Amino acid sequence: MGKRLEAVTLSVFLCAAFLMPPFVFGSKAKARAENVEQAEVRAMFLNVGKADAALFFLGDRRYLIDTGTKESAEAMLRALSFFGVSRLDGVILTHTDSDHVGGLKALLKSGIAVDRLYASAFYTLKSADRHPVAKQAERYNIPLSWLSGGDVIDAGNAMRMVALGPLTRDGDNENNNSLVLFLDTPQGTMLLTGDMEVQEEAALIDAGLVQRADVLKVGHHGEDDASSEALIYTVKPQIAVISTDSGEAPDTPDPKVMGRLWNIGAEVFVTQKATCCVQVTLRAGNAVGQLIQYQVG
Prior knowledge:
48% of the residues are buried. The protein has helices at residues 3-19, 26-38, 73-82, 98-101, 104-109, 132-140, 198-206, 229-235, 255-263, and strands at residues 41-46, 54-58, 61-65, 87-88, 90-93, 113-114, 117-120, 144-147, 152-156, 159-165, 180-185, 188-192, 215-217, 239-242, 267-270, 277-283, 286-292. Strand 12 (188-192), helix 7 and strand 13 (215-217) form a beta-alpha-beta unit. The protein contains 9 helices and 17 strands. It is of the alpha/beta class. The protein has one domain (3-13, 39-291): 4-Layer Sandwich (Metallo-beta-lactamase, Chain A). Strands 8-7-5-3-2-1-16-17 form an 8-stranded mixed β-sheet.
């Protein structure tokens, strides 16, 4: 099957996945519907420097997407403690770059229980034996699921993370092997892009997989090799979050990326502005963002 046909088939599958309703009946159905409507959807994009780590509260489930660097692991663990997290239903590593997987070892050593690890099925490494997530999964005896376009993580309460990509393996640029996740909930939606650059963006757009989302986690720390006009004008988020520290990477966030986001009316948050995180809450299709600061003293 050619790549174009694969993309079209995947696009049809994902559209069906987005539209398929749950089938429930009677008083139990009413109670379940009320629970679904009231289920919390909150994302905390942690200040881990020029790196990525985001904590998700989806009803009673807890997920972490990326773990920052080895050096920022303490900041990640402090935030998890601040939010009272002692167990994670899943930890999702978008790709193998050290500013995304660097804190994984510290997390697993911390005593926080992790039910399952997830990683991109595509990577530039020549062998899975060298994959940092696979090695830690084996060491700590944690189940590992490999994800690519079309896979779904069911988070309960009619919530799910749909993997839009990667569709194919990029043998040269690990950023374009990033997991791209569409968080679909009754309260609203988020597009979580890892470090995907314009090449992966174009592949997903051409396949018809990119759609509107209430929140956009901006790709590659706001650098100018990501967040094309095509992507931003398709997603048109209410809120965009950039995870970076311009002290570490003065070229982030790039003015052109900021301009594109402002042009479509997005409210832009940068994690370096908060000592703890940028928190985004979804309610009835509305996204509300705020900076969470640690109290001094």
